[in-house]
Design brief:
Blueprint: E1 2-6, E2 8-15, E3 31-36, E4 42-44, H1 50-56, H2 59-62, E5 70-75, E6 78-83, E7 89-92, E8 99-101, E9 106-109, E10 114-117
Antiparallel strand pairs: 1-2, 2-3, 4-5, 5-6, 6-9, 7-8, 7-10
Length: 124
Amino acid sequence: LDAHKAGDAEEVVLELTGTNVVPDVAPGLRCIGPVSLAERPLMVGRKHQPDLHRRAVTKECLQFLSRDHFRIEFEGGQYRMLVMTTNPVWRDRDGEASDELARGDIVTLQPGDQIALGTGNTAS
């Protein structure tokens, strides 16, 4: 997932990218957003975007996508992600080592960060 600013400071667009995305799904059909985070956080997981995940994520990777996978909020001028799953999650940021995250971890996100899901930290 690629998080980046979409106009407002409190809006995000998450785009599914990587080797575990079904190749013939057009970019516009593998996005969440733009979504405003002004009033409530964005919940991501099979329960929250079932059609997107069934359509755009390979069957092999779906087993690593939880019903409630992570939450993104905008608070105090920062984007923050709370990991809600026991499945593997990484935050990839240019110029830094990947951070493997565990359930309950909260990390800041910046435009351009990637959230990698699945079995390895190659953005999937």
